[in-house]
Amino acid sequence: MGPLQGIRVFDLSRILAGPSCTQLLGDLGADVIKVERPGVGDDTRRWGPPYVKDADGNDTVESGYYLTSNRNKRSIALDISTARGQEIARKMIARCDVVIENFKVGDMARYGLSYADLKDANPRLVYCSISGFGQTGPYAPRAGYDLLAQGLGGVMSVTGEPDRPPMKVGVGIADLMCGMYATVAILAALHHREKTGQGQHIDLALLDTQVAWLINVALNYFLSGNAPARMGNEHPNIAPYNLYRCAEGYVILAVGNDAQFRKLCEFAGDVAFAEDDRFATNESRLANRDALNERLGNLMSARPNSEWIAGLAKLGVPCSPVNDIAGVFADPQVIHRGMKISMPHPLSGSGLVDLLANPIRFSETGVEYRRHPPLMGEHTEELLREFGIESGS
Q1: 228-249 tens-digit pLDDT
Q2: Contacts of 201 (CB under 8 A, 6+ apart)
Q3: Residue in 250, 249, 231 with CA at minimum distance from that of residue 290
Q4: N or C: which end of the chain has fewer CB within 10 A?
Q5: Residue 348: φ, ψ to 5°
């Protein structure tokens, strides 16, 4: 059984940050109750195409985007803007361990479902609020989205080619990282509760978490006073660390120390390259980055990428191809690690949908794939009965 078996989560979140967090909790064994507005549901249900195909090859109402972060949940159709919906929510929350929500700041208080409204009835409650900019500060009332967080949080300023406009990361990384921080915070709060019996409120913002994972880019700025610029695929502190064109295809090199650089030069048949004072150390390679890339580019272009990858891997020099998404799921290591799974789904013509696997590997308490991403309101009656609440009244 999963390590979070017995933990019940009342999930008032939608889109990606909150749902990615609660899917992770569900994968680890928690019972996640996904609350959706009747007739509307999670916004991402309509973020398509593509959609799940039925037996006739027609689109259903379930988008691929929705499927990414909603397995291992039960869906209840509940309108918390109504007095009846709020009453049902409070009854259910009284028997839950965790509440997670990503409404605009102040909305939960208007619905009588804020942490302050709930904590006295359930003092052990762990309540996590996710918003664009946090519960306090001048931006708190604003709606927040991943792209805004990437822009305000600085990552776009260091992503892309130097002579091109700022570029966002190709997936919703600000949302996903906020969901990861939310998961860590919830687990820490549950641990604290086990020791003290005390729940608490967690305030997480897309912008805060985006700024937090600037890591070395931020520290380079703190130490130098210089705002880092876009460097394409280059690394500010390591060279060579880049994408190189080969006789066929491309190769990524990520040379982390001088010994690896020497092995690279030996394999390339240019030992003098490693012995040249301009390139012998990482510091000198950084100082002569343009000359380094020119000479290395000439060497790389003489052989196909398959030869470089096979030869350098044997020597322990970090290198790889650039897989497209099809290539990722055809890669033997990805296949071996089982990073694509299939689950039964009632709307799929094949009876199954393919999903991304959870990357966590436990030795004892394995990840579980118990429930397909639910249809909207699929478990409403089941949950009302389970909580002893009469439906339709």
Answers
A1: 999 999 999 999 999 999 999 9
A2: 115, 119, 127, 128, 129
A3: 231
A4: C
A5: -80, 135
Residue 128 dihedral angles phi and psi, to the nearest 5°: -115, 120
**Helical axes 173-196 vs 17-27, angle rounded to 10°:** 50
Q: Are both 55 and 128 inside the same structural domain?
A: yes
pLDDT in tens, 251-306: 999 999 999 999 999 999 999 999 999 999 999 999 999 999 999 999 999 999 99
Give how many domains the chain has, as a whole number.
2
Instruction: Locate 250 and state its tokens.
Output: 């491309």
Q: What is the DSSP string of 349-391?
A: TTSEEEEEPP----SSS-----SPPPPTTTTHHHHHHHTT--T
**Which of the following is catalytic: 27, 146, 175, 208?**
175
**Which CATH number goes with the domain that contains 300?**
3.30.1540.10
Half-sphere exposure of 136 (CA within 13 A, CB side): 2
Is the residue at 351 inside a domain? yes
Task: State the residue range of the domain holding 309.
Answer: 241-245+250-320
- Residue by residue, DSSP assigns 107-169 as HHHHTT-SHHHHTTT-TT-EEEEEESS-SSSTTTTS---HHHHHHHTSGGGGSS-TTS-----
What the block records as the tokens of 242 is 């880049």
**Residue 228 is assigned to a structural domain of this protein:** no
